[in-house]
C-alpha cells in the first residue's frame, strides 16, 4: 500500500474518533439535566443528610435538663458531728444545701430537689430512693467532718461506684478552687446513700467542724456561699463535659 493510502485511512479514523467524542459529550450533558455548577447531585446530597441530622441531635442534647438531688446530711434526731463550738452538723449542712438548691434554680440546665428542707430526719435508704424514684441524674450528699484532734482539717469527696468517679473529681476540684480548703482527696468508700443510688452519687465532707478555723468558715455566709457555688460549678462542668 502507498503512503498516500495510509494517510487517507488515518484521516478517516481521526474524523470518526472526533465524532464519537462529540456524541459522548452531548450524552453526558443531557444526563446532567439542569444541574447548576457546584450543586450536589442526588447521590452527593444523600451523603450530607446524616451530617445535618447529627448536628440537630447535638443541639437537642445540649438542651437537656438534668435532675439533681441535694441531700443535706443528718437532721431531726440525728444531729451529726458536733462542731468545735458545739453547733451540730445538721444545721450547717441544711444551710449549705438550701443555698445549692437556690443556685440550681437559677440554672436552666438543672431541675433540683432536696431530700429535706427543714430539721427532719430522713433514713439513708429513703434519701437514695428519692433520687431513684425521680430518675435523677446525680445525687450530692453534703456533710461536715469531725475528729478528736482539732488540728486536722481539709475537704474530701467520697464515691463508691465507678460511674461516680468523674463527678467526685470534678466537684472536688471546684471545691479546692473556690474555697481554698486543704485537699484531702477523692476517696472510694462503701456508704449506704451511695450504694443504693442508681445514678452518679457522691458524699462531700465539706471540712472539719472539729477544727475551729474550718468550722468558722463553714458556718459563715461567705464560706457557705463558696461551698454552694463550688458544688453548682462542679455539676455544670461535669454535665457539660459529658455532652
From TrEMBL:
It comes from Cohnella lupini. One of its GO terms (cellular component) is outer membrane-bounded periplasmic space. The keyword Amino-acid biosynthesis does not apply. Keywords: Hydrolase. This is N-acetylmuramoyl-L-alanine amidase. One of its GO terms (biological process) is peptidoglycan catabolic process. It comes from the Bacteria. SMART domains: Ami_3. Residues 128-236 form the MurNAc-LAA domain. Pfam families: Amidase_3. GO terms for molecular function: N-acetylmuramoyl-L-alanine amidase activity.
Amino acid at each position: 500500500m502507498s503512503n498516500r493510502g495510509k494517510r487517507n485511512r488515518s484521516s478517516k479514523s481521526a474524523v470518526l474518533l472526533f465524532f464519537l467524542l462529540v456524541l459522548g459529550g452531548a450524552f453526558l450533558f443531557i444526563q446532567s439535566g439542569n444541574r447548576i455548577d457546584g450543586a450536589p447531585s442526588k447521590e452527593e446530597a444523600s451523603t450530607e443528610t446524616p451530617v445535618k441530622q447529627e448536628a440537630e441531635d447535638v443541639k437537642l442534647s445540649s438542651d437537656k435538663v438534668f435532675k439533681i438531688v441535694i441531700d443535706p446530711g443528718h437532721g431531726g434526731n440525728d444531729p451529726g458531728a458536733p462542731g468545735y463550738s458545739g453547733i451540730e452538723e445538721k444545721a450547717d449542712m441544711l444551710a449549705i444545701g438550701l443555698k445549692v438548691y437556690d443556685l440550681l434554680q437559677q440554672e436552666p440546665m438543672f431541675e433540683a430537689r432536696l431530700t429535706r428542707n427543714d430539721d427532719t430526719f430522713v433514713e439513708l435508704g429513703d434519701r437514695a430512693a428519692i433520687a431513684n424514684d425521680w430518675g435523677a441524674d446525680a445525687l450530692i450528699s453534703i456533710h461536715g467532718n469531725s475528729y478528736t484532734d482539732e488540728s486536722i482539717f481539709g475537704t474530701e469527696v467520697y464515691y463508691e461506684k465507678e460511674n461516680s468517679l468523674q463527678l467526685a473529681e470534678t466537684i472536688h476540684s471546684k471545691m479546692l478552687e473556690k474555697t481554698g480548703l486543704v485537699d484531702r482527696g477523692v476517696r472510694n468508700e462503701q456508704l449506704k446513700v451511695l450504694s443504693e443510688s442508681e445514678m452518679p452519687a457522691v458524699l462531700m465532707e465539706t471540712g472539719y467542724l472539729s477544727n475551729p478555723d474550718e468550722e468558722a468558715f463553714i458556718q459563715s455566709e461567705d464560706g457557705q456561699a463558696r461551698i454552694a457555688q463550688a458544688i453548682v460549678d462542679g455539676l455544670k462542668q461535669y454535665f457539660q463535659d459529658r455532652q
